[in-house]
Amino acid sequence: MNSGRRVPPIGAALAAALPVVLASSPTAVSRPAGPSAQPASRAQPDPLARPRPPDSPEVAALRAAFLAGSADDLARAGDHLSVNQLADVLAGEDRELALAAARAAPTARDGAWLLAPLGEIARSPDRPLAAAAARAAARIAGGLDFAALLAGDAPPDWVRARLAEYRAVAASAGRWPDVRVASLDVAAHLAAALGEWAAPADAPWDWARILADPEPEVRRAAFELSAGPLAPETIQLIGAAAAAERDPAAAAAAIRAACAGLAFGDAAAPVLAALGRRGLARARAIVANAAEPAAVREAAAECLAASRRDHP
User: Fold this and answer.
1) Is residue 250 located within the same domain as residue 213?
2) Is 22 within the bounds of a domain?
3) In sequence order, what are the residues at sequence separation of 6 or more whose Cβ sits closer than 8 angstroms to the Cβ of residue 251?
4) Is there a single domain that holds both residue 309 and residue 218?
5) Residue 247: which residues within 8 A CB-CB, separation 6 or more?
6) Is 168 found in the same domain as 259?
7) Is residue 213 located within the same domain as residue 247?
8) Assign residue 228 a region: left if phi > 0, alpha if psi is -120 to 50, beta otherwise?
9) Percent of the chain, pLDDT > 70?
10) Which of 10, 35, 51, 259: disulfide with 303, CB 3.0–4.6 Å?
11) For the whole model, what pTM was predicted?
12) How many other C-beta atoms lie within 10 A of the C-beta of residue 9?
């Protein structure tokens, strides 16, 4: 029972002797000896921590150029790395180096072979890294054509596989718009570069899916990337979209996509039928708006001129 008396503090001598008494007690639990015993004050090593291996001179130059922010130095540093070395850096765990390699990739020799690792990074949850990879891939794909693919010994099936990868990224509603737009750019250029290898399945995107996409930047990019001559069914889809499009910038891009081919001899009747009265009214508003880009206004004017010829 508690008597209410306060227990006096343990004296210094007793406190010093207490560990000895406990150690000699038959009930005391001793710490097992051996290699597993560690002094309590020593920090335990992290088994997951791995020291970063030293950079090779070429990789060190790439990192230094990236940190310095010099595009010219970065291009030069990237030029000293083979495409396999750049691919290894892109696939590595060093985020800083991956960003550096993505920035250097468009100027690399045989850069087409970097489309695969860049496509992997474009699916990353790291937005700056994913965007840098997608933009680099778009620049690389923009420099490719049928002759370049032949010269680089790129098999058609390999090109088709890359096209399908970027098309999937572009169609992913969970991706950020800038990553999706750059991926559309890659898919469009690869589809064009396939040339005589191209098959119907090699379309850069599914128009029905694109037109239903909730992101206006993606719809606008698809219109802007549409290169003529367009198939009749594509003209019908784009013309109808130009009339119904909710976003003004995307609508203007659709008008340009539908009407630009008239200046190169495309038949006007299918375009005018697809636009309808509402689409032509939009074309009229675009021509009257000095703030619209000149190329958009010129294309819209082609449709209006064709309309006047058909209905003087």
Assistant:
1) yes
2) no
3) 241, 242, 245, 282
4) yes
5) 216, 219, 220
6) no
7) yes
8) beta
9) 82
10) 259
11) 0.79
12) 8
The reported pLDDT for the residue numbered 260 is: 94
Q: What values do phi and psi take at 57, rounded to 5?
A: -55, -40
**What pLDDT is recorded for position 46?**
52
Please, what is the end-to-end C-alpha distance for the chain in angstroms? 113
- Give me 199's structure tokens: 């098959």
Question: For residues 104 and 73, what is the distance between their CA atoms, to the nearest angstrom?
Answer: 9
What is the rounded CA–CA span in Å between residue 235 and residue 275?
9
- One-letter amino acid for residue 79 of the chain: D
* Residue 306: Cβ within 10 Å count: 20
| Whole-number Cα distances in Å, 237 to 45, 79, 221, 233 | 62, 44, 15, 6
Write out 255-309 in H/E/C secondary structure: HHHHHHHHHHCCCHHHHHHHHHHHHHHHHHHHHHCCCCCHHHHHHHHHHHHHHHH
Token pair recorded at residue 224: 């802007």
Which domain, by its residues, includes 66? 55-109
More confident residue, 200 or 288: 288
The residue behind tokens 């990192």 is: 63
Dist. CA 96–CA 249, nearest whole Å: 36
Query: Side chain identity at 302, as an amino acid letter?
Result: E
Q: What is the DSSP letter of 55?
A: P
Question: Which tokens sit at 126?
Answer: 């790291």
Comparing C-alpha atoms, which of 219, 229, 146 is closest to residue 189? 146
